[in-house]
Fold these 4 entries.
Entry 1:
Amino acid sequence: MELWSIAIIGGGPGGLMTAYQLQKRAGRPCDITIYEAGARLGGKILTPRFSTAPVAYEAGAAELYDYSRVGDDPLRELIAELGLSTHPMDGDTVVMDGAKLTTDDDLLAYLGAAGWDALEAFDRRAKDWMSPVEYYEADWKEGVPDAMALAAFRDVLAEIPDAGARRYIETLVHSDLATEPGRTNAYYGLQNYLMNDPDYMGLYTIDGGIERLPEELAKRLEATVLLEQAVVRVERAEGDLLRVVSRCGGELESDEFDFVVAALPHNWLLGVKWGGELLRGAMERHHAHYDHPAHYLRVSVLFASAFWRGRIDGSFFMLDAFGGCCVYDESSRNGDDSHGVLGWLLGGEAAVTLSNLADAELIRLALESLPESLKFGAAEFVEGRVHRWCGSVNGMPGGVPALDPEVRHQPEPSEHPNLFVVGDYLFDSTLNGVLDSADFVAEWIVEEMEDDAP
Ligand SMILES: Cc1cc2nc3c(=O)[nH]c(=O)nc-3n(C[C@H](O)[C@H](O)[C@H](O)COP(=O)(O)OP(=O)(O)OC[C@H]3O[C@@H](n4cnc5c(N)ncnc54)[C@H](O)[C@@H]3O)c2cc1C
């Protein structure tokens, strides 16, 4: 029996999820080839270990979002299906000017009555604007942008009448936004504020590291996986086939497929040459619609002990350094109590600008940013690691206006109806979003295969 052939470009979570869902849903075997430019699968999910001691930390994606209180949660279901265990994450503290703000009383004392009122008013405004159910459904909506999609998040923040309350909110959301409030819209900014509320979503992680997710997916795939084989060109071939040209060693290889899925993040999309004027133009327009690069920089430090315990608890805390950053207590999840690990997640301008500095300098800046009450812990430094992620996430995912999900995933339907894209930038810049995208495309391809058996 002739098999349908499907090329998947990119061996990150999006590519692996697409392959897994295709394999699961297609009623019959298909011939899937995954092209991965790098030497490993998993993309921006990366759980390495320090060299001084084999202690794990998250160097890329660090938390997963749980929507199961509100509706179906495909990512939770996938993780359970893969036999992975999880545990919840929490972080209720924001450190501002050295003050640890965890409870309402802490906030009231720090902000004063006027600041507290301003914070409450902002919170009410955000919750009145979007309920947990509306939040859950928002990423699938297409249509005319509402006022919040057209306004800059900076302008909404500027309406907060108290400077302390405004700075608190900016610090709280900055690392999730991964961009500056002037570079994204109020819609995405407010969503990033609401995600801190457990009524909207919970946070969790995978025991043993988030990289177990791509590892378990890869184990189950019956696909040809081509590592260190970047795709350099895609174009229409004879009949309805698509030609994929890849670089293997110094040589170019060319193969033809019934379907091609580009499971690439936005910043890699134009690294591929899209052959022919029609396709090139369509891919350039697709790229431009989502062109809101956002940035991360991660500094992970191994300490002799988890010296902060008892002073700041939880899986992470927010800190008012670097324009607002998140500091993860990596040792709260890596199952190792021989050491302590803190991971600084810097976002936006700070991430881009500081990525020019050498690792040692970045590690020094991270240690210096520790709040006064924790500065003594710098003496326990053992090893530091830096991971730079410039331009690798999206600061206004979904684009404005949000397009019909079919249009998002099929950039050039007239002559390239068998070319699809999968990406988190089409939804919400997260693993939940890239799974939604992978599911959507896998389902579509399966329908096409059923309608048109070879
Ligand atoms: C620092 C950081 C923190 C994050 N934190 C979270 C988080 O806490 N929670 C969350 O849900 N999400 C988080 N994300 C986002 C999450 O990592 C992404 O949603 C996810 O990795 C997207 O998967 P992807 O497969 O689309 O892209 P990627 O993970 O980038 O994978 C794409 C793959 O394509 C390969 N590739 C590129 N070009 C080619 C080519 N021409 N040919 C072949 N292969 C190619 C790349 O080498 C890569 O392996 C974070 C991202 C970063 C950078």
Note: The radius of gyration is 23 Å.
Entry 2:
Amino acid sequence: MYKYLDDFKSPSDLKELDNTSLTELAGEIRDFLLKNISKTGGHLASNLGVVELTIALLYVFNFPKDKIVWDVGHQSYVYKILTGRKDGFSTLRQLGGLSGFPKTHESVYDMFETGHSSTSISAVLGMARARDLSGDKYKTIAVIGDGALTGGIALEALNDAGRSDTDILIILNDNEMSISQNVGGLSVYLSQLRTAPIYNKMKEDVKRKLKQVPVVGDRVTKTIEKAKDSIKYLVIPGMFFEDLGFTYLGPIDGHDIESLKKILESAKDMKGPKIIHVITKKGYGYSYAEMNPDKFHGVEPFDINTGKVIECHEGKTFSEIFGNELVKIAEGNKKIIAVTAAMKDGTGLGEFSKRYPERFFDVGIAEQHAVTMSAGLATQGYIPVFAVYSTFLQRGFDQLIHDVCLQNLHVIFAVDRAGLVGQDGETHHGVFDLSYLSMMPNMTVMSPMNGDELKAMLRFAVDHDGPVAIRYPRGRTADDIETEEMIDGKGELLSCGKDMTILCEGVMSQTVAGIADKLKAADIHPDIINARFIKPIDRDLIVSSVKKTGKLLTIENNVIQGGLGQAALQIIAGEGMKNVNIKLLGIPDSFITQGKQEELYRSCGLDADTIFRQILEMADKDEQ
Ligand SMILES: Cc1ncc(C[n+]2csc(CCOP(=O)(O)OP(=O)(O)O)c2C)c(N)n1
């Protein structure tokens, strides 16, 4: 039973509460978050850190008339709770349930969808310009973390917004953390601002005192404000932002509702671009999350009392297998470099970073930069391995083509979380990489069906010359099956038959191999080809098999457009083969929602049962 939260209807209820009550409400929200996320899993630490900030924003501004964009959006739970979606929290991140990210279809309070980092300032600037053009009056606010601020698009937007004279407010939510510790010069700069409140006070004192002196005082203040000497950089915090054209306010304690309300009120009617630097603690109020904010960034269901994750899994993840193998390879090959864009642990590079810190680079949330920086390393004879989630590699599309493939550079892309990822939903599925990577000249694209193939592919990629991408899914797998060396462009015949050709990639090969006995029992004897190489694809194997069977079923954990199936179709057409019965299975041409991976495979027709039925149908057999 919650004193405030139980009857909370809409943000206007906040206006009835004084600061003490608002602080009590913050406590209730933390309790609510803990109770719910410990059951459903989700982004806990970031949300615990923005409770007071969200309350203050909702108190001061008038949403949805005013517009707000939450960068990345993983910290929007508190906002959802207070904008009428509290009751949906038992379904958080589940199929058909409440999304873990802002969704415009979910509520009028969500004005822009996010998931990939660093977009909020651009989006809000667009809204502000639209407002100015149409003569409207609403406020526009971007809430961006110090991690997200390291993304290139955020800096492009700052550059544009700062000189725009447009009224926008940026809330910089600085908790010193990305998922892991934040990195880079900007983060060092922010920590200097954090630890220099004395300078801030000095700035205010100097300004106030000078302003008291008529005329001359004003002039001197202006002179000081315009002076660009090094002393000023020292004494006036936020100079970087001020020079860009922003009014910098802060730093301010992000867990003090009263101060937050005050500073937001004063920024509200200030003209031009403004930035409020808010200091928060990731995981605030839950000791396990405060101590391990990275572990509680995105967490599976856990025991509140011990902070331990409840579910025990068997087997290693693809990411772990990749990370371990890379550590081994790097031991004997000093040219190997590991690169991550703020996803050290998620991509399995934790151990590498400890063993070879001088050969490990976390570049911040900067995938474009990571790709081109890797290209630079490769020009000097190093072998960079950029481990990145498939969905975030989309950010580096042009860099892949222009900086890596065009120069045929030996950069390895360990493309993690490829295919359907599950509960993070639309923004996070890695279902386009086979298509966008395969279309790039010089790029080799591989997809392992298990952990051993991943290891063999990594070794192949290191020995190969030119860009190589290995895409593998979120999840666990076996890594104790002996796999022979990879041969460039060669697929693997998993079983030999006559009735049809089943061409599949990655985990789909695993799924089909898993129903091999069932197929035999149904008297269906297909050629099952594990593609291994999507590019160059094993043309000979496909042609000889389809010539024999006359039927081709392709199955991929990727959109059908531009993927494995269409590559095979091109071959069949190119060979002039007629009367081939063909079916392509893969992700349909729509955005796939959130849900458990198994549920999503089922909804896309990529689960074992549906695949089995498709095979029966193609083989003209009835279900037994
Ligand atoms: C383009 C992109 N790369 C990587 C990620 C993965 N990611 C999600 S949240 C996050 C850290 C964000 O840090 P910050 O903005 O400081 O927010 P905090 O969680 O600390 O509040 C990262 C790297 C992403 N969402 N988008």
Note: Residues 57 and 264 are 7 Å apart (CA to CA).
Entry 3:
Amino acid sequence: MVVTFIHTADWQLGKPFAKINNPENRSILQAERIEALQRLGALAREKNAKFIVVAGDLFDSRQPTRATVSRACTMIGGMGVPVYAIPGNHDPAGPSGPYAQDYFRSEHERLAPNLTILTEAVPFVRDDAVLLPCPLLHQHVNADPTEWLRGDLDTQAWGNKPRIVLAHGSIQGFGAEQADDEDGGIGGVPNQLNLDRLPNGVFDYIALGDWHGFREAGANGFAWYSGTHESDRFPRSDSYQSGLSLVVTAERTKRPIVQEIKTGASVWRKLSVTFHADSDVELLKERFASLFPAGSIKNLLELELAGSLSLEAGRQLEEILSLLEARLLRCKIKNHTTVTPTAEETARLADPANNPLIGAVAEALRVQATLPGETGETAQRALRELFNMVHANI
Ligand SMILES: [Mn+2]
């Protein structure tokens, strides 16, 4: 028996994106997480998927707002296929979790009858597959949520139906990367899955959630993290991919076929530039232009700058950064650039045609700017300001 389904996880609907200061930009990203569900539903129909599994963290918090609950149920209801979700660390099962809320229960019933929340570690048997959920009952779970799958299972009754495990947590070897949130908060939680201890040959696909990028867990081709359906963080390595959903074809005892398809719209990029010469500021413009697809406005950039620039080039850099600020939903800047006046610039500030006070201040700042720590940094900033001021008057 063969079945094709969609594996997704970590929708984290209602995620606040608190690091984004501009509320307009924040709401664009929040809306995108919901709208991406439409693309997910379309993918399921296009691929003739029999169902969708959400491997945890459908909601971002234990108490999603009513608006988030209503939107989620509306979008799921429109997907046109059954959707099965397990509670994760952000949205655990149990009385304090979102699935116990009266409001969720009534909206679920009214708007998303195709949604099943698998809150218990018991097999869910369909005509075409067996789902083996490993829900999180609490945010922090010390026991391995997949432990029950090592015990006695009535596998005889399942015949040749593909067996699909749903679990949420981290596997060994993730190291410091495992923290699941840029915003801190709930990241770095134990919820360790010991997939190595699962019996061999008993399960045909392991649908994992918690890691927000797409990656295989282990190397035998059976266990995968889908990553989040819509990107929500800057990449931490060159191989990091997110905003994908997986089309999985599973068959009893066969290696599953896994195809990753883009469902996300926001583009999160990282760029590091070290300035060796003033002309490198122009290069930054070029590299920036090639980072994002044409016509896309849902762009975010983590920009790390280092090196040294003259005052004039520093001024140009500031102009570019303020442009990026406006063009991007978020520009997270780590600017370690040192701005030091060239001999010509110092002479210009000390030009007798200027107010003599400017020359005196510039000279004092130039000396202070070479000092380490905050004094030096403040003097550098003051020097730039002074230069910009004089520049504006020329
Ligand atoms: Mn999680």
Note: The longest strand covers residues 299-309.
Entry 4:
Amino acid sequence: MSETIRTLTNRRIVRKYKKAQICDEDLHLILQSGMNAASAKGIQPCTIVVVQNPDTLGRLTAMNAKIKGTDTDPLYGAPTALVVLADMEKSPNAWSDGCLILGNLMNAAAALHLGSCWINRAREEFELPEGKALLREWGLPEHLVGVGHCIVGYGDGPEPAASPRKDNFIKFIR
Ligand SMILES: Cc1cc2nc3c(=O)[nH]c(=O)nc-3n(C[C@H](O)[C@H](O)[C@H](O)COP(=O)(O)O)c2cc1C
């Protein structure tokens, strides 16, 4: 099996992280993979915001927890969050493009033996006044739509196993 197929098949979500930050070299490689995801008509309507600042991570965590209605940390204490934002004014496919970016980010992290997880509720976050404030601070337009966060870090604990794939996942017509 090629390394790429092995990575794509074995990537699993990680929900427990060490405090140590990932190195910039790995971060750069992950971002390269995200930026090179396909986008409809090649428009590249998304932006990836790299959040490693503890105060900003805390603000994302607080917003996400409020939306989720939980007291636990929805970002699992990961040291890096890559926020994918879509500009729907640039392309009607911006949301789909953003999902593909998130897939690439998680797979690239797995290829580098780093843990990652897609964290939901980004859409709601950037509809909140607190989210709009972040967009303004980041110098980004307030109409951007949050697609998701890819948290990244060193996994803490045993490698998670895959849940079984459902029986009817694939249908052959041939
Ligand atoms: C669109 C999407 C949203 C997700 N949101 C969350 C989330 O908010 N929190 C979380 O812990 N996992 C989240 N996940 C991870 C899934 O729960 C995980 O992929 C699923 O349980 C299967 O695990 P695996 O990716 O290791 O096979 C999300 C995954 C996707 C694709």
Note: The chain has one domain: 13-153.
